[in-house]
Each structure stands twice: as structure tokens, then as C-alpha cells.
Amino acid sequence: MIKNSIIILASALLELSFSVITTYAADQNSPEKIKVLLVDGQNNHDWVRCSPVMIDTLNATSRFSIDRATVTKSEIEKFNPDFTDYDVVLSNYNGARWKKETEKAFVKYIKEGGNLVVVHAANNSFPNWKEFNEMIGLGGWGGRNEKDGPYVYWKDGKIVTDNSKGRGGSHGKHWEYKVIVRKKDHPITRGLPIEFLQAKEELYDRLRGPGKNMTILATAFAKGGSERDEPVLMTITYGKGRIFHTVMGHSHTSMKGVAFQETLIRGTEWAATGNVTFSSVSAAELPADRAASRDPEKIKPEN
Ligand code: ZN
């Protein structure tokens, strides 16, 4: 009787410890697929509607298998995944600090060659976690200011690091902003039009952070905001880890912007493998005069 109770208790605990993670692919164990751990569960944005768009977008390519860890406040204690099971962690998380051991394992994972993708408000997260801020390069809100690093933007053909005082993170109104590729020979941007519009959303500006080992791939002019050419797509290296950081992706509707989807797919593949083999757009699909949108199911699995 006692033995049975122990078994029941043990299996209940086992269930609890794994309940945070859901798997989103029928052929999860297919060896050629890139294994992604999407982390969400807390955000000042609508993560409930946003994460499925990202999952559908990546799944449409047939190149990824995705686990989703929904880390609500009450789940934080249970959140301690084996990060090394994944090629890349995709963060749609803007919330409370994780357990010490989880954060330590995450830093070790990235340092030793694990990889990370940071989407929009995920760069608001963890203002006081030093290593995380080094991974993301730049962040916003959460009391960030000059103590956290310079403003970094683009001016007269080069990157400016500006140590002036002030808040980190703001944005103007929602609009279709023009993304300009500044580094054309990177795997993530190769073959994209030099200029294209992202679907209507806010454009982050005045981000600040350590900005070390960071490459700005694309910028957008923050009209009505900082009035500067602000970083939109960035890559960072942290130890042996590759990080792709996109400020796009405010809402589930703007996540249907072709600009968001295409760069998310390319950036996630690059972070995971160091290379990009996927391309679903031609210049016609990212027209210069309007922001194109599409449902994820319209994404072609092969170019
Ligand atoms: Zn937003």
C-alpha cells in the first residue's frame, strides 16, 4: 500500500516537473530538425496570441521542431529544463527572474555554444541579470539607464555609442516602419531587399546595454520617437553562443508581417546552426511601398 502510494506520488511529481513544457511537432525526433525551446508565459505583451504565430511560422518551414515552456509565475519553481537538449532557445518572455540554478544553467548553456533568439519585449526582461544583458546586447525599460550601457544607433554610415544620460527604451506611435539593411553579406540578410516595410507596430528606440560583440544588421528611423536610425536586427556572440535579437514582433498581427516572419526564420536558423539555408521571399514579396503580411500557412516550406 505504502509502496503504491510512493509510486503514485513519484509519478505525480514527475508529471509536475515536466508540465511546463509542451511539444509542438509530430516528428519531434527527426534528427535533421533544429530543436527549439520557446519560452513564454509572462509578458506585458499578448504572448498567448503571439507565441502560436511564431510556432506556426517556424513549423511552416518544416525545418524546426519546437518545445514550448510556458513559465507563468507559479511555474517558475518548476522551470529547470535541460537547455542542452536544444539547438536554440527562443524567448518571448518578459517576466520575473528564474530560479538561480536555472539561470546558472542557461548562462553555461549559452557560453558553451547554446544559442538564443530574443523577440521584441523579451529584451525588456531581466534588467538586473548582467549575463543576460550581455547576451542581448541592448535592452529597454525596467529602470534601464546610463548605468546599463550606452545608447547604440546608426549615424552617417556608422555605429554610434552614446553615453549620454537617460532612460533606456521608448517608442513612438504604431506605423509601418522602413527597415534598412546595413549589413548585406550576413546569412540572415543575404538576398533580402535593402529596404522593406514591417507591418504596423511600434518601433523600439533608445535601447541601451553593454552592446559588446554585437553586429547591427538592420536599422529603422524612429520618426516621432528618438529621430535616430535605431537597431532593428542584431547578432551578438556570448562565449561560444550565437544570439539573434529582433525588436520586431509587438503583436500577433504584426508577427504576420513578412518582414518579421522572414527574419525570424532566418535568424533562428542562423542562431542554431551559424548558417541560413531558408529563403521564402523575393523582392516582390517584400515590396518597398507597402508592408506585406501573410498567414504562416502561406509560407513555402522550400524556396
Ligand atoms: Zn511592443
Produce a short descriptive summary.
With 303 residues, the chain is of the alpha/beta class. Helix content is 22%, strand content 23%.
Describe this structure in words.
- The protein has 303 residues and is α/β, with parallel strands linked by helices.
- It has one domain: Rossmann fold (3-Layer(aba) Sandwich).
- The protein is 22% helix and 23% strand.
- It has 5 helices and 14 strands.
- It has a 10-stranded mixed β-sheet, sandwiched between helices. It has a two-stranded antiparallel sheet with strand order 6-7. Strands 8-11 form a two-stranded antiparallel ribbon.
- It is globular, with a radius of gyration of 19 Å.
- Bound molecules: zinc ion (ZN).
- The site of zinc ion has 5 residues, from loops.
- Zinc ion binds next to loops.
* End-to-end Cα distance: 60 Å
Task: Please identify, by name, the CATH architecture.
Answer: 3-Layer(aba) Sandwich
Main beta-sheet strand count, sense and barrel state: 10 strands, mixed
Radius of gyration, CA atoms, in whole angstroms: 19 Å
Return the domain count: 1
Class based on secondary structure composition and strand pairing: alpha/beta
Poorly predicted ranges = 6-18
- Oligomeric composition of the shown chains: single chain
Percent range of helical residues: 10-25%
> What is the CATH superfamily?
Class I glutamine amidotransferase (GATase) domain
The overall pLDDT, averaged over residues, is 92
State the name of the first-level CATH class: Alpha Beta
And the CATH topology? Answer: Rossmann fold
Shape: globular
